[in-house]
Amino acid sequence: MDQALVIAAHGSHLNAESSTPTFSHADTIRATGAFSEVRESFWKEEPHFREALRTVDAGEVYLVPLFISEGYFTEQVIPREFRLEEWDPELWDSDGTSANSATLTAADTDQTVHYCGPVGTHDSMSDVIVQRAKSVTDDPDVGDGFGLAVVGHGTERNENSAKAIEYHADRIAEMDRFDEVEALFMDEDPEVDDVTDFFESEDVVVVPLFIADGYHTQEDIPEDMGLCEDYRDGWAVPETVDGHRIWYAGAVGTEPLMADVVLERAADAGADVSAAIEQVRGESGAGSAAGD
After folding, report:
1. Residues 233-247, buried b or exposed e (16+ Cβ, 10 A)?
2. How would residue 50 be classed by pLDDT, with cut points 50, 70 and 90?
């Protein structure tokens, strides 16, 4: 049976660049030939979630949410819009960061849908964060002498939002690659506004765990950290703030290695994509995240 991949992302009516990473990662995966069809779908743009399965001929579909955390969109909106009527969040048996996959049947198309957890909580996302640090410093060995801040939105309305950030910060800290690793947030403590208060290292890489660059990553966070007074003036990389050199990476979701996380999610659900994973990791230049 042919296997198809559908990537579900938020998109935006206000930010034309919001969907760019989704299309880019889909193109990367499409080029591997691992799936007979690869489709992008969005909540706030076209093609919409609700129509996506009707454009797929394959009877078996791997549905991967390009979202950071488990919550409202992954547990309610996507299953409803894709008409996964047998869906229950308990099928993921997750503590907020451990969703894997559930196999369901789409109500109107009768396709078998392997509904995967969001990319943001997959273990391989830690590798992408490290890869982002390598990219922004242009140093494949970055780590020794550097601090790393993993930044999330954070919200008291969804405790899982912070869990994903803390999960990856803890995993990267255990690698002993960076001198210091901290999880910081926009809307809850500890706040990214005070980033220099949390590090002794002179050099600090800041990686926002967001899918796409937009209002938060290109306006709020740079201004909040003191990289600039007005985002429209831009900032240097690195920029000196309170005696620290801040290497601001922008959204982690724009890193080419993100395509690997999508494939890893599908592989965990049973897709035969091992060759594609090897190809994508090779093309992105990803080495050991631990720096061994």
Report:
1. eebeebbebeebbbb
2. very high
Which residues does 272 contact at the CB level (< 8 Å), separation at least 6? 3, 34
Distance CA 244, CA 170 (A): 23
Rounded Cα gap, residues 162 and 66, in angstroms:
17
pLDDT tens digits for range 10-49: 998 888 788 999 999 999 999 999 999 999 999 999 999 9
Measured over all CA atoms, what is the biggest interatomic distance in the chain, rounded to whole angstroms?
60
- Among 73, 94, 132, 151, smallest CA distance to 257 is for 132
Q: Tokens 């009516």 appear where?
A: 13
Burial of 14 (0-12, 13-18, 19+ CB in 10 A): exposed
pTM of the model: 0.94
Our CA dihedral for 29, 30, 35, 36, rounded to 10 degrees, sits at 170
Residues 6+ apart with CB under 8 A from 267: 273, 274, 277
- Cβ atoms of 66 and 9 within 8 Å: the answer is yes
* CA torsion angle 233 238 243 244 (round to 10): 120
Burial of 155: CB neighbours in 10 Å, binned 0-12, 13-18, 19+: middle
What DSSP state is assigned to residue 218? I
What CA–CA distance (Å, rounded) separates 39 from 30?
Answer: 9
- Distance from C-alpha of 289 to C-alpha of 165, rounded to nearest angstrom: 17
